[in-house]
């Protein structure tokens, strides 16, 4: 289809779309669709593990494995969607059909989370867990198929809306596209956990997972409707046959031609068709070859959600009025994307250009990788800080004296609460794994001759016999007021618990009930509160996000611009495939390289990425940027010329016959050579 003319920009957007400020109006529907779709995807993902754990009652290991398998599947299915789009249905229809599959999947998830469906005895818990498990697994499979399937198509379809001479506008489109991804995901990761925390139900009230999945489902329906509304304005490139089959045929026929070169007459027309397909395959293979080192970037990038979140659990999340949960730190990434993308596009890149530097896409991606490596060096430095603060504790407080002269405790403390903590000697307590960031541990030692009961407004911790101690109990961090009671007499003791801390409280023998008992209790820190502040993670988030902007936004556009017209979605899928491989590498490295020191693991990952980055920059040096549209136009011109000129111009049937005969010849050749052997 011919591009529309625009008075300002020469050739303008394709399709029937109006042009607003130099951009085809159709892309508005595409970016809104992306915003809603990403809201749907990330919103559902934000509560998924909790749904597994608390609704389906799976253990942590099973919940984590199924979660990662689902995420990996979401980045594998793009290949499927791309092949269907480029070879068969076209991008538009593929997006529509797979969005329906996606929305059905989301609805299935929402329904699977309604506990009342199988709660026949109305006690608040589902009676047939199998129903909920099967429905949610079917839902997740459909979602993975939908989200992955449409992902390469939507980006490439957006790119298709721009005319040949709209490189600048197309680049801006990919930046806006990325902003929408992050805007949608940011909003949903804030909203869906709030929805989940609500209580809902018909017969009994439970945590509202159905609402937390239902809203993303509704957003997916909105995404679909918005996309359909734009239908009349889009430029819809026709699918160009089964590309994969064409590639195989091309190789087969080429061989046959080579073998039977003297037997058959090949028209110039056919030659050019074949050469065009070969050129297109070469374009794709060159880019795919360049992608080989890229998964390493994603290996580091995706550790935000795992290693970095665990690191945050050993840090202090008190931001004054705001207390940040470790997993909430991840929202720093989309927030920074929303600020950095406009800054890069309107300030940094133009400034670099003004300085006369040619900051090509591959150079940007190389710098992006280096920034990600720097982020991991920052993470290592923060880790060293955390380790030092923990070590100080180990050396400074192995002994605890009651201060009142009769109770002596010897404690050996390893690690921090919420991670791997062990307190040996007088009584052993082991906290293994991340429990709840907000919970801290405490116990009381009773130095009085009478039994004392300890309670708070929310819980009763029981009676402690004279000269004895209680077991460790958990309490929310922050201020706590304990009531100490003996018979009808009581007094109150208040204290403050820092994140990740653990305390032993000694009740003095001199305590007098009825008066203020604040001075008659001594608090001893078994485990110091997390002293390294979570704000120290901001530099690492800054560098990884700056790296992402340079690497991922550029890579997205690069994958589109370097792909031949019939394989745009295929190359987008290739790009997303690097994300899937990156995720697998995280799993493998975490399993294989059991490095005892976390900071050393961060340094290892940073070094690996630098090494990969050097290889990538060498590969990039030898890469020649192409303009697929121009190359294809040249071929098509030749095809048309020869089609006109060739006196013995073959009809379609004739071409097919030549191909068939050539293959037959090839088979004959095979048979002949086999007989000889
Ligand atoms: C290819 C994807 C990894 C890119 C993109 N992700 C992001 O933009 C992240 N910054 C989002 C954040 C919420 C993790 C996506 O398409 O999801």
From TrEMBL:
<keyword id="KW-1133">Transmembrane helix</keyword>
<comment type="function">
    <text>Electrogenic proton-coupled amino-acid transporter that transports oligopeptides of 2 to 4 amino acids with a preference for dipeptides. Transports neutral and monovalently charged peptides with a proton to peptide stoichiometry of 1:1 or 2:1. Primarily responsible for the absorption of dietary di- and tripeptides from the small intestinal lumen. Mediates transepithelial transport of muramyl and N-formylated bacterial dipeptides contributing to recognition of pathogenic bacteria by the mucosal immune system.</text>
</comment>
<feature type="transmembrane region" description="Helical">
    <location>
        <begin position="602"/>
        <end position="623"/>
    </location>
</feature>
<comment type="similarity">
    <text>Belongs to the major facilitator superfamily. Proton-dependent oligopeptide transporter (POT/PTR) (TC 2.A.17) family.</text>
</comment>
<dbReference type="InterPro" id="IPR018456">
    <property type="entry name" value="PTR2_symporter_CS"/>
</dbReference>
<dbReference type="GO" id="GO:0016324">
    <property type="term" value="C:apical plasma membrane"/>
</dbReference>
<feature type="transmembrane region" description="Helical">
    <location>
        <begin position="95"/>
        <end position="117"/>
    </location>
</feature>
<dbReference type="InterPro" id="IPR036259">
    <property type="entry name" value="MFS_trans_sf"/>
</dbReference>
<protein>
    <recommendedName>
        <fullName>Solute carrier family 15 member 1</fullName>
    </recommendedName>
</protein>
<keyword id="KW-1003">Cell membrane</keyword>
<feature type="transmembrane region" description="Helical">
    <location>
        <begin position="283"/>
        <end position="301"/>
    </location>
</feature>
<keyword id="KW-0472">Membrane</keyword>
<feature type="transmembrane region" description="Helical">
    <location>
        <begin position="62"/>
        <end position="83"/>
    </location>
</feature>
<feature type="transmembrane region" description="Helical">
    <location>
        <begin position="171"/>
        <end position="191"/>
    </location>
</feature>
<dbReference type="GO" id="GO:0015031">
    <property type="term" value="P:protein transport"/>
</dbReference>
<feature type="transmembrane region" description="Helical">
    <location>
        <begin position="20"/>
        <end position="42"/>
    </location>
</feature>
<keyword id="KW-0769">Symport</keyword>
<feature type="transmembrane region" description="Helical">
    <location>
        <begin position="364"/>
        <end position="386"/>
    </location>
</feature>
<keyword id="KW-0571">Peptide transport</keyword>
<dbReference type="GO" id="GO:0015293">
    <property type="term" value="F:symporter activity"/>
</dbReference>
<keyword id="KW-0812">Transmembrane</keyword>
<feature type="transmembrane region" description="Helical">
    <location>
        <begin position="211"/>
        <end position="235"/>
    </location>
</feature>
<keyword id="KW-0325">Glycoprotein</keyword>
<dbReference type="GO" id="GO:0006857">
    <property type="term" value="P:oligopeptide transport"/>
</dbReference>
<dbReference type="Pfam" id="PF00854">
    <property type="entry name" value="PTR2"/>
</dbReference>
<keyword id="KW-0653">Protein transport</keyword>
<dbReference type="InterPro" id="IPR000109">
    <property type="entry name" value="POT_fam"/>
</dbReference>
<keyword id="KW-0813">Transport</keyword>
<feature type="transmembrane region" description="Helical">
    <location>
        <begin position="129"/>
        <end position="150"/>
    </location>
</feature>
<feature type="transmembrane region" description="Helical">
    <location>
        <begin position="572"/>
        <end position="590"/>
    </location>
</feature>
